[in-house]
Structure formats: structure tokens, C-alpha cells
Design brief:
By secondary structure, the protein is α+β, with helices and mostly antiparallel strands. It is built from 7 helices and 10 strands. The protein has helices at 5-10, 22-31, 41-47, 68-72, 179-183, 196-201, 211-226, and strands spanning 14-20, 85-94, 102-115, 119-130, 133-145, 169-174, 234-241, 250-257, 261-268, 274-284. The chain has a 10-stranded antiparallel β-sheet with strand order 1-3-4-5-2-7-10-9-8-6.
């Protein structure tokens, strides 16, 4: 069996160093669409090194190494074709505001393997600490098509009840034609996001945008629209990747705001609001 749940769980943790500089943060922010208009003071806090604030979702690319999904496929007990792999969901807990430069240690391990029948789901947890203590914890849910059915634990359902009533705010964000090509320079070089032949082999009509790029664009919209642009107010952020985005499309981001959390749903405008992010919650102060 290409996914050996017992072996993957028994593999233990692997630790490694990571570091980032201001230009890495700036590149990430540009990759998720920051900097438009280029001279807007609200955008300069994402792009100008002298006043740089770090959007918490930068944690998903900090260090520029293998992204969580690719790293998870290198764990003992996991031997699958990358073309059968999808990023199923992402959770992020921020322990302290992220600094614009940093050196830290990331400890990664598979903490769960679920049998969904038609697929296997691996949960890769990454704990990041620096000299001052914990910085962030993130969980990447890795969906491997065709590798379930061994009779294992199905795991919890990620589905939530839809938010009640009309959204408090709705914004639209365009995805540039070259956005996936720019975002991949943050470290995720999966050919699914650039190579048309690979994308078709994986079952898509053309390359798709990275789910974590949509994840970052959505958090930026929430921070800018509802949190006064204050990135330090974000405490956690979780989502389920419900569908793909093609470069050139438009994201419609709907937000239901409460004092300590915001529910979010994201759809692709040009495909009749086809779901892109679902079961999405930003917890904040």
C-alpha cells in the first residue's frame, strides 16, 4: 500500500532550521497581490521595507523550503504520485507576531492518517520556535486520491454549518494571469501550478493557482477590510480547500464578522461563485 499509516505515524519528527529576510516577506506579499495601488499607504506596509508588517500567512512559506504538502510526501510510509495529491486544508495558529526577519527551528511530523474511502488524508504538523519561544503551529491536510479503503479511522469531519444570514462584507479580488508564476518563487515549485501538461495529467484543464496563494489573498482581505490593517490581531486561521482557482479569475470573498472571529467563504466569480475556500475561520482580537 503506497500509504502505510502505521509507518508514517511512527516515523517521528524531523527538525530543521529556517530563516527569512525582509525581501522574502515582500516577495510573498507581492505574490498574493499586495502593492496595488503601489503608492497606497495601506499597501506600502506590505511592500516597503522601512514600514514592513508581516501577514501571518507568510508562515506557510517562511524559509522558502519544501511546502508542507511536498514535505509530507517524503515521510517514511508515503510513496505516492504527486499528480494524485491535493492540498485539502490548512490551519495556522500564531503564538506571537511574525518578525520581518528571523531565524527559527521547524519541527515536522505526521500526526494523523485518515481513511476517507476514496482517498487517504495525512495531517502534517509543523511547530516553529525561535530563541524567544514558540512562533507558530500549522497543520497541512494532504489529500491523496485513490489511497484510502484500508479500513482505518475516517477522522473528524471538517464541514461546518454555513454561516447564518447575509455576509457583513463582500469584496472581490482579481487573480492576475501570472500570479501562480510569481507566487511559486516563494518556494512551491509543484508543476501543477505552471506546466500545462502536468496539470492535464492531474485532471485539470490548465495550471491552477496555489491553494495557499488563495489562502493568503483571503487573509489579507479580512485584515484590510475588518481588522484595520493590523496583522497582529490575527490569532488563528483555518480553511478547507473546496475547489481550484485558475489564474485570471476573480475571487469573491464574503465575510461574517463577530468580535473575536470572522467566518469566510470564497468563490470564483466567473464560474458562478464555485466554492474555493470553505469552512474558513479567522480568529482575532
Amino acid at each position: 500500500m503506497p500509504v502505510d499509516a502505521a509507518k508514517a505515524l511512527a516515523a517521528g519528527s524531523r527538525a530543521g532550521g529556517l530563516s527569512w529576510r525582509r525581501k522574502d516577506v515582500q516577495l510573498y506579499h507581492l505574490g498574493i497581490g499586495a502593492g496595488v495601488p503601489a503608492t497606497d499607504p495601506d499597501e506600502l506596509r506590505y511592500t516597503l521595507e522601512s514600514r514592513l508588517h508581516v501577514l501571518p500567512s507568510f508562515a506557510t512559506v517562511a524559509g522558502g523550503g519544501k511546502p508542507g504538502v511536498t514535505f509530507g510526501l517524503s515521510v517514511p510510509g508515503v510513496d505516492v504520485d504527486l499528480a494524485r495529491v491535493l492540498h485539502g486544508g490548512q490551519s495556522l495558529v500564531i503564538h506571537r507576531p511574525l518578525p520581518p526577519t528571523g531565524t527559527a527551528t521547524a519541527t515536522r511530523r505526521i500526526v494523523a492518517v485518515y481513511d476517507k474511502g476514496e482517498a487517504a488524508v495525512l495531517v502534517l504538523r509543523t511547530d516553529v520556535t525561535d530563541a524567544a519561544g514558540p512562533l507558530w503551529t500549522d497543520d497541512a491536510r494532504i489529500f491523496v486520491r485513490g489511497e484510502g479503503g484500508w479500513g482505518g479511522d475516517r477522522g473528524p469531519s471538517a464541514r461546518l454549518e454555513p454561516p447564518a444570514g447575509d455576509p457583513d462584507r463582500t469584496v472581490e479580488r482579481p487573480v492576475r494571469e501570472d500570479q501562480a508564476l510569481l507566487y511559486r518563487l516563494c518556494g512551491d515549485f509543484n508543476p501543477l501550478h505552471a506546466d500545462p501538461e502536468f496539470a492535464q495529467r492531474a485532471g485539470f484543464e490548465r495550471p491552477v493557482l496555489h491553494g495557499l496563494c488563495t489562502y493568503g489573498m483571503t487573509l489579507k482581505a479580512v485584515v484590510d477590510t475588518l481588522l484595520g490593517g493590523d496583522v497582529t490581531r490575527v490569532r488563528s486561521y483555518t480553511t478547507r480547500f473546496a475547489g481550484v482557482v485558475y489564474p485570471g479569475e476573480t475571487l469573491r470573498i464574503r465575510m461574517w464578522h463577530a468580535p473575536e472571529s470572522t467566518r469566510v467563504a470564497v468563490g470564483a466569480v466567473e464560474r458562478g461563485d464555485a466554492p474555493v475556500l470553505a469552512d474558513t475561520i479567522v480568529e482575532h482580537t
